[in-house]
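Example record for the data management plan.
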Amino acid sequence: MPSKNDDMDGMLDSILCGDSRSIIATFPENSVDMVLCSPPYFRQRDYGADGQIGDEATTAEYIESLLQVFHQCQRVLKPSGTL
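Corresponding structural encoding:
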């Protein structure tokens, strides 16, 4: 994963797998051209990870989790970026 600086050269054409909440937090603002994601559906899958998105107790908590992720996506996307 990149450090919190503007050097994203090593990330060109990369696919990162893991918890989006921890991965995207390492990216600097306005540093990403595109975010492609497929959020898990609410209570449809168990990926065997504590605190996984989609396993919240209520739909309101699930939506809040998604909003947190998409807020970070907005933070890291360049003005010309695509989600």
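Summary line stored alongside the record: Confidence is low (pLDDT under 50) at residues 1-6.
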